[in-house]
Structure formats: structure tokens, C-alpha cells
Specification:
Strand order of the largest sheet: 14-15-13-16-17-12-18
Largest sheet: 7 strands, parallel
CATH superfamily of the largest domain: P-loop containing nucleotide triphosphate hydrolases
CATH class of the largest domain: Alpha Beta
Radius of gyration: 31 Å
Structural class: alpha/beta
Strand content: 15-25%
CATH topology of the largest domain: Rossmann fold
Shape: globular
Number of helices: 23
Amino acid sequence: MKFAQVLVDVPTMQTNKPYTYKIPDALANDLRLGIRVIVPFGRGKRKVQGFIVGFTDHVEYAGKMKAIDSIIDLTPVVNDELLSLSKWLAQTTFAFRISCVLTMLPSVMRAKSTKILKTNGQPLPDALVDLFGDHSELEYDEARFNSDQLAAIIKAVQNGELVVDYVVKNQARVKQVLKISATQSPNELQTVLAGVPKNAVAQQKLLNWLIENPTAEVAQPNLVNQLGIPIATVNTAAQRGWLKKQKVAVLRDPSKQPVARNYPLALNGDQQTAVDQIATSITNSNDDVYLLEGVTGSGKTEVYLQAIQKALVAGKTALMLVPEIALTPQMVNRVKGRFGNLVAMLHSGLSIGEKYDEWRRINSGQAQVVVGARSAVFAPLENIGVIIMDEEHDSSYKQEDTPRYSTREVAKWRGKYNHCPVVLGSATPSLESRARAGKGVYKLLMMPHRINNQSLPAVKVVDMRNVIVNDGQTDFSKPLLDAIQDRLNKHEQTVLMLNRRGYSSFLMCRECGFVLKCPNCDISLTMHLKGRKMQCHYCGFEQPIPNECPNCHGHQLRSFGTGTEKVEQALNRLLPSARVIRMDVDTTKRKGAHEKLLARFGSGQADILLGTQMIAKGLDFPNVTLVGVLNADTSLELPDFRANEKTFQLLTQVSGRAGRAEKKGEVYIQTYNPDNKAIQFAKDQDYEAFYRWEMRMRHLANYPPYFFTVRVTASANYENQSASVIYEVDRFLRQHLTNRNIILGPTPAAISKINNKYYYQLIIKYKHEPNLQSALESILDQYQAATRHGVYISIDSEPVSFM
């Protein structure tokens, strides 16, 4: 083992081919697969982070081999399974392998390379004397240098007066706490105490505590607060040798609230059948994939928990995925309440440090159950016994940035690697999953009844066309408003969903028809009354609400459409006694806001929970008896072949929030398309009928699951650039692919400009295309150099949306 194969972390001109480096004798016994190292790269003294992915005794290279500079880790940060997974992921997502490896790690573990300017003993130019001062080296940062200093630095480097060095910094930091412990025995401290002056009260308190707790280690801030003494007293005690201070590494605890212990519940017949089949696969180490199709309230969570218990009893670990953990705190609390400190969490609601510490707990084997959102599928668990994916249909399981992976496919890969079952759970499975279950590729487990034998809520469709004719423009129909008032009278709770945040959709001048648009995106600005601003929900651009039309300078500006902010205002006006909680991106920006708002609602501090689709799943409140969908058409008419499926899923999921306990539930769906099939099937809550109807539509249009799809997108700073590139790609594909596929486009994307980038795309639909993989890989390599000119090619296999 003389050479190591290293996957280098270089943002430009990436490659899936590792580079070979000589192993210094001093490191020969320390290197392992999956360890991060620092290596020289390219010309000069540039150093970068890399990952060891292989070893070899022989290399065919006549030149001088570069050697590994140093190591970052003492133990591997990417285990053998994840190294193999990164190779598969790079191939299937058309991404570079280094991107896949970095995706698997906490962001804090991405090392940072810094340029250092060093003097070599020669006098510095006058322009640099003040900049360096008394120091012999300086971190290079273009932002802090003026043009004269930059010119002087470049000239000094060329003349050899300055040397450029590169330092790779490991950003991962372990949290340390200053802890205090006694250094003398209780008898010795008693003697010390006897000699302390009577007026030295703080010293007496500290000595008494040390005598009573001779073996304790306590954090200094906690001790100071507990005893009510100044830090100076502790410092004096340390100087006199009564105690010692030492920094101790501790793990950050992401759990902000204590979680009540819960215990396994008695299962009904459907639940028991599901648990038994999954347990058999765990025991026999079978990599079966189960589709657990259960209506809302059927007890899928308890099936998950008991399946996890089976894995733990078998000496294995478990991985449970939810669409977005911050939106489902009840689910997380149930898992932590069942398995306690064995549980680690990985999700976007954690701080960088908390994520790092939870990852460390998993990597070290301290945590045996991982609950997390999409990226938790890469948790460094070993010997996995079961992988569970709740709400498997949710679109958030698809990564929209490179690498564009499907969490479901990664989970299945890990299931095969670990010889363990994968459980896909949903009340409204994706058509792809349901079709595979129908073909026997997945094993179908049905749970068609609620656990308390309570009937599903009654759903009523309200035709809003008549409401406009009779009452004028309004967000609430009379039947829904009356139903809300009825719940207020009964002291029951209501959930209202409108999948659009802000106050109104757009602002238009009634004199000239001008609509205020984002200067960076091809989209209108949304009005937010709080803060009086117009905001782009794509790039974040903001500007004050104008007093006059920017086009004609008229004063007939009017807002159109509605959002959660406007509905909240209407509720306060129409139902002044109602206590309303609004839950959307604007009200949940702060850490822990989701959990706090839901805790308030769950404790009865509010009558109405108003929110976007984030309230459609994972909520289980026994006093919620009414659900209202204010506009069921929000996602229905989008230019997306999955529009019907997403609408049906969202309506069915949010309807399931009502009547989950003893009280019966009721649902009102307001729509301008009451005869739409997706809405009618949602009204009947008949997934199987919707599935058969939508499958016929997909078959007629040659869409998934009858065809596979790939979307190729070109983006650039100028529209002619992106259009030119996508047409070049189109010609290349038509030359290299067979005629057994369908290519749609090229066309501008549905939103053709986002954040000053222009987007063009084409769609490939195919059943079997032998040349596709090599053709797309060629495109990826061919256009990599174009990124220097602001042109990017992205390839998305099985996109969840064509928008």
C-alpha cells in the first residue's frame, strides 16, 4: 500500500476519477478508506481537501508523485457503505462523486481552503507595510484590499517578496464546556473551611459544595448560578488548589422540551398483519419493499414504532424519514418518547453545531434510531434493520439541487445493501409506488380503517362560482363560515388551509393594467402587508408597496388574489372572538417556531389554525372537528402532469386532520372547479378510484409510471445563451439516441427567468434507451467548462415537476 486514491474537493472542473497520491511513511499506519486528507493540487502550493476512496501498490506514472500533506480525521467520516453509495449516486443522478460525498456529511465538515501571504525576510513595499504591521503573514481576502494594495501584492508575489501558501481549515468544532471538580478530599477541605474568615460567605458556600460533592464534575456557569457566587470566587479557589478547571467536550442537545414516555399500544388486525410481515423480513434479513397504504388516522405511526422495536431487539439499527421534521413535531416526540436517548435527529431545524453533534452520535454508534428529513437518508448507521419512509409521496423527498436524488431510491439502495426491509407509508401513495405494488414489485399492506373505528370525515364541496355571484368577492362561503362559528360555539377547533402565503398574489394598476414584477425573475411580486413590502418568493427581492403606478403614475393600484395574511385579517374581522394562529413561512422563520405554534394550538390556546400546506400532514389534535380548504384550485391548473395527483393528495391529507378522536369530523372544500375529477375523488376520499382514473390519463399521455423521464435544463445570464445551448443539446441527443424515445422541447421553462438566470429545458420520455446514460454523461462533461462563462447544464432524472 504505497499510494492512495483521493477524491479531491475542487469546485471547478470536477471529475469522478480519483487522483493518486504517494503515502508518506509517517502516515502509512493512519490512513483508512473514508478519511479526509489534505493534498496539494494543481500548480503552485495550492492545497485542497480530499477523501481516500482506495489504495494501490502500483501506479503507471513516470513523473514525480505528489504526496499527501496531512490528515484531517483520525477515523473514517464516510463508511464503506456510503462510499459505495456515492459511486451509484453519481451515476444515477448525473452528478460528480465529490458532490455526492459532501451531500452525505454535515455542512460544517466541508473544509475551507484559505490563501496565506507570507513575508520571506525582504523589506515590504510601502503600500503593504501598514497592511502587514508587525505580522509576518496575512490571510488573503480580496474584499479587504483596495486596488493599490492588490496591485502591490501581485507585484510582490511576482518579485518573490511575498510567498503564497494555502491552508485547509477544518470547520468542524467540538463544543467544550469548562467544568469544575474538587482536587482535595472532604477532610482536607473541612480543614480549609475552618480557616476561612466568617465574612467570606461565597468561599464558604463553594467549599461546602465541594465537600458534599467530592466526585462531581459540573459546568462553571451552572455552579455559579446554583450557589449565587461570583466567578472571582471560583478563580480564587482554583489558584489555592481547592478545585481544578478543565475543558470537557460535550454534545449539543437539540431537544428543547422534555418528551413524555410512551409505550406500545394494542394493535388491530390490519396493524398486526403489517407489523408481522415487516418483522419477518427483519428477522430473515430480506430486502423487501413494503407499501403501507393506510387512510389518515389508521395507526401507521404505531406500526412504524413497533417495526423499529423489532429491529432493535434483533440487535440492528433503524432509520425513519419524514418529509420535514420541523412540521411534524408530534411524530418526532412519539419516537423519542418510545426510544429515548437511542434516537438522533437530523433536519433543517437544527443549528450547524447540533447537526454535527447528532451526526457524531450516529457515527460513533451511540444513536441506534435516526429520525430525519430527506438528507437523513445518508445517516452513517451501520447494520440497519429497517428503513421507514413516512408520507412517501411527498415531493420534498426529491432533492432539487445537485445531486438531484430521490430519497425513495436511495432508501431502497441502502435496504439492499443492509439486507433489510424498506417501508413506504402513505394514505395517498405516489402513482409510481402504487403501480409497483400492483405489479408485485412492492408488497402491498392495506390499512383501510381508522384505529378507533371512527368514520372518515364528511366532505362537502362548495362551488365558489355561486358565492361570487351571490355575495361578491370573498374568501369564505357562508356554509364554511357558519361551520366555523358552530365550532366556536362548541369550543372545538378548526384547521383552515390556503396554499399561498402573503396578503395578495399581485398588485395591478387599474388605469393601465401594469403588474408589478420582480426585476430578477419572470414572476409578479406578492404583497405582504406586515412590513408593507412587495416580495419575490423565488429570489427574495423586496421593495416597499408603491403609492403610485411605476408605469403611468396613476393611483388606482389594487391588490388581487389572496394569501394567508389577508385571510387572517378577514377572520379577525368576521369572527372577532376567534383566536387565530397563522402558520406559514413568514411566521415560522425563527428556530422552533413550528413547534411552539403547534404546542399553543394543541393546548387549546387558539380556536383556528390557518396555514399553508405545512399543516396538511402530521398533525393529530383530538379537538379538531372541522377542516376548511379555502381554494382547492391553487395547484390544480399548474402546467404539470402531476397537478391532479398533487391536488388529490393535498386535499386528502388535510381532510384527514378532522375527526381523529371521538368527535366526528367535517371538511369543506371551496373550489371554482367542483366537477374536476381530482376534487370529486378527494371528496369521496377514494384513493383506489383516483389511482385507476389517473393511470388511464398517464397512459394516454405517455407519462410516468408508463414512461421514465429526464429533464435537461440550460441556464445562463443571457437568454440567447441558454436557448443556444439547449438547442445544441437537443441536436446532440437526437443524433446519439435511438428513435424509441420521445423528446419534448426545447422550450423556455414555465418560469423562464429566476434570479437573473434564464432557463430553457427539454424532456426525454423513454422506456428503454441504451444510449441515454453515455449521452447524458458526455453532455455533463462537455459543458463543464462553460460554467466559467455563467452557463450551466443540469440533468434531473425522474423530476417531480416539469415547471
